[in-house]
């Protein structure tokens, strides 16, 4: 993102969920790291290591990992796509995945600190050939919508640039 003040996107500095979505190598993780650094709080990186940050490797029970973190810390969840893959490979039904997602969002809602969640947008490409891949695309699409609805801010990243996603209701006024 550009560093000149006229090009800066206004970003709410308060607590709550920030949802970052985009394709592979779009800049999601880099932006998450910058946002966490700006929070100036203890940062907990869930799933991927960064020097001097506490890393919690939790492939299945995100709600538990979030509940165990100090409430005022900043958490980066990287990423929902791999989490969903792990749940599906374990054999979880779509209903169980929806329940796990809802439970995780409820844990986030109780926090004081910022939570930054990263996910991949996989619905912009061709229709997958296999049934498993099509099911994955459908389920992650619904999970991404659920997280975007719960987030106080959602950003779509493309080529290292962020676009703020508007709530559909705002367009229907």
Quick structural summary:
This protein is an alpha/beta fold and 173 residues long.
Descriptors for this entry?
40% helix, globular, alpha/beta, single chain, 7 strands, 7-stranded mixed β-sheet, Rossmann fold, 173 residues
Runs with pLDDT <50, length 5+?
A: 1-6
- Quickly give the structural class: alpha/beta
Secondary structure: number of strands? 7
- Largest β sheet strand count, sense and barrel closure: 7 strands, mixed
Helix content: 40-55%
Order of helices and strands: EHEEHEHHEHEEH
**How many domain regions?**
1
Q: Any idea what the shape is? A: globular
What is the CATH topology classification name? Rossmann fold
- Beta-strand content: 15-25%
* Amino- and carboxy-terminal Cα gap: 30 Å
What does the secondary structure layout of this molecule look like, with pairings?
Elements: E1 16-22, H1 28-39, E2 43-46, E3 54-56, H2 62-68, E4 74-78, H3 80-90, H4 94-109, E5 114-120, H5 131-150, E6 153-158, E7 161-164, H6 168-171
Parallel strand pairs: 1-5, 1-6, 2-3, 2-4, 4-5
Antiparallel strand pairs: 6-7
Helix pairs in contact: 2-4, 3-5, 4-5
Task: Describe this structure as you would to a colleague.
The protein has 173 residues and is α/β, with parallel strands linked by helices. The chain has a single domain, classed as Rossmann fold (3-Layer(aba) Sandwich), CATH 3.40.50. The protein contains six helices and seven strands, in the order βαββαβααβαββα. It has helices at 28-39, 62-68, 80-90, 94-109, 131-150, 168-171; strands spanning 16-22, 43-46, 54-56, 74-78, 114-120, 153-158, 161-164. A hairpin with a 2-residue loop joins strand 6 and strand 7. It is globular and about 45 Å long.
């Amino acid at each position: 993102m550009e560093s000149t003040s006229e090009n800066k996107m206004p970003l709410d500095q308060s607590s709550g969920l920030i949802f970052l979505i985009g394709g592979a190598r779009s800049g999601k993780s880099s932006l998450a790291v910058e946002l966490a650094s700006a929070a100036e709080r203890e940062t907990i990186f869930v799933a991927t290591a960064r020097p001097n940050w506490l890393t919690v490797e939790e492939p299945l029970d995100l709600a538990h990992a979030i509940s165990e973190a100090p409430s005022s810390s900043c958490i980066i969840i990287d990423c929902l796509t791999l989490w969903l893959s792990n749940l599906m490979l374990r054999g979880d039904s779509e209903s169980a995945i929806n329940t796990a997602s809802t439970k995780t969002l409820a844990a986030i809602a109780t926090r004081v600190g910022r939570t930054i969640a990263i996910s991949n947008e996989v619905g912009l490409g061709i229709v997958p050939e296999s049934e498993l891949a099509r099911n994955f695309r459908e389920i992650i699409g619904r999970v991404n919508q659920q997280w975007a609805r719960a987030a106080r801010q959602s950003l779509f990243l493309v080529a290292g640039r962020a676009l703020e996603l508007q709530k559909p209701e705002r367009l229907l006024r």
